[in-house]
Amino acid sequence: MLRFASRLALPTRRQPSAILYLAAQHRALTTSLSHVASSPFAKGSATRTPAATVSTATPVVSARNASTGAQALQSLSQRPPRVLVTGSLGQLGLALVNEMRTRYGVGNVVASDIRKPTAGLPIAHPEGPFVYADVMNYPLLERIIVDFQIDWVVHYSAMLSAVAEKEPARALNVNITGFQNVLELSRIHKLRLFCPSTIGAFGPQTPKINTPDLTIMNPNTIYGITKVHMELLGEYYHEKFGVDFRSARYPGILSVDTMPGGGTTDYAIDIFHHALQTNSYNCFLKPETRLPMMYISDCIEGTLQLMEAPVEKLTQRVYNMAADSFTPAELDVAIREHYAPDFQMNYVPDSRQAIADSWPASLDDSLARRDWGWKPQYDTAAMVHKMWTGIAAQYTPGPTKLEDASELTKVTQA
Ligand SMILES: NC(=O)C1=CN([C@@H]2O[C@H](COP(=O)(O)OP(=O)(O)OC[C@H]3O[C@@H](n4cnc5c(N)ncnc54)[C@H](O)[C@@H]3O)[C@@H](O)[C@H]2O)C=CC1
Ligand SMILES: CC(=O)[C@H](N)C(=O)O
């Protein structure tokens, strides 16, 4: 099995400054959590809503980030938001919850998923609240939002591009019905809602280089269609009902501590694990396939910047967000030049090649930079360095462990 260091916090370039929060707020939320833990809902009631597992022992301490915190707190009526994160055990959710709990206070960030948090996941604050939440279950979501007095939802539950092509009916349900549920609940309960979009929302007719925010989309994958639906419906709810919907179109995200969930950009993570374990990799994309990519710290930082941005700064609701772009061949060269001279890359393109071919090679994110100050910290060289050194540290030195490579990721079977 992969050996993850437990309780790894996201690498951060800033020292969070912890401030003790008002005692009244502390009492209010602790009371709220106690209520949930002792409610019929929490125990699993006759309505067959699954039990919410909540740690009431968690003190509600507000730890805010020094650089962005003051401004965001002002716009939040001087208290940190209470946030529900759906799909929080996925590649991005784990990292986002870790960072949000550092900034907003452990008890203020409710993690949720349909899976159990297993030992070894990089959860920095395991004492924080975690609940079962199937995003298709509207009454359950509403109950969590009310019981925890949620202000913001980050909707991360989704099926990614490769797995969605394999199970289109399920992907439509999770990605479309799930989003419609959180959007409608955001309208009713006046929540700020963030749902990520993706380079996968674009299609073969989209301009490939420096793709602007507003352009032809026409995706030809189930994943892309569900994401365009999400963008349009979110904008509609904003226009029509004033829902504070926000979205960023992410590139492929690279992470050390968490594994990808079945996408087309997953090769750029798999390659490091295979290189370190077997010194070779069968890449499922052709060498020249250029795709936009981003390191996870940038993704999480940018997401929080957009979430915290004062509403008057936003001139639109969906923004491109970019860092750098590279090809499998360039990654191969970087690994051989700097880390593993004998690394052997083979190219065995599969059905994911067609998906990648329909996506942009680079994004124009100038509006995100202008409106809410987006600026990535990691270019390709810096990403490769973080990935190699971070993943190398996960493997114990010794003989090659082939069984580890076979466990690497769900996507190798996609
Ligand atoms: N990872 C990436 O490179 C990119 C991700 N995104 C978007 O970011 C979001 C998060 O992506 P990842 O963390 O990579 O995905 P992931 O596949 O790693 O995690 C998704 C999580 O959703 C959960 N889930 C599935 N069905 C659910 C349901 N019915 N109810 C509740 N939870 C359910 C899964 O158990 C899983 O933990 C998604 O919306 C994805 O489209 C966008 C662009 C790039
Ligand atoms: C770019 C994405 O949305 C995701 N990583 C995928 O490849 O499906």
3D structure, described in words:
This protein is an alpha/beta fold and 414 residues long. Helix content is 41%, strand content 13%. The chain has helices at 23-38, 40-43, 66-75, 91-104, 138-147, 161-166, 168-189, 222-241, 267-278, 296-308, 328-338, 352-357, 366-372, 380-392, 402-406, and strands spanning 17-18, 63-64, 83-86, 109-113, 130-132, 152-155, 192-194, 197-198, 244-250, 252-254, 280-283, 291-295, 318-320, 324-326, 344-347. The strands form 4 sheets. Strands 3, 4, 5, 6, 7, 8, 9 and 13 form an 8-stranded parallel β-sheet that branches. Strands 10-12-14 form a 3-stranded mixed β-sheet. Strands 1-2 form a two-stranded antiparallel ribbon. It binds 1,4-dihydronicotinamide adenine dinucleotide and 2-amino-3-ketobutyric acid. 1,4-dihydronicotinamide adenine dinucleotide (NAI) binds next to helix 4, helix 7 and strand 10.
In short:
Helix content is 41%, strand content 13%. With 414 residues, it is α/β, with parallel strands linked by helices.
Strand-residue proportion = 5-15%
Rg from alpha-carbon coordinates: 21 Å
Q: Give the biggest sheet.
A: 8 strands, parallel
- Fraction of residues in helix: 40-55%
Please give the count of helices. 15
Average pLDDT score = 83
Order of helices and strands: EHHEHEHEEHEHHEEHEEHEEHEEHEHHHH
Low-pLDDT runs of 5+ residues are 1-75, 398-414
Number of extended strands: 15
Bound small molecules, by name, code or SMILES, are: 1,4-dihydronicotinamide adenine dinucleotide, 2-amino-3-ketobutyric acid
> Structural class from helices and strands?
alpha/beta
How far the N terminus sits from the C terminus, by CA atoms, comes to 20 Å
Shape: globular
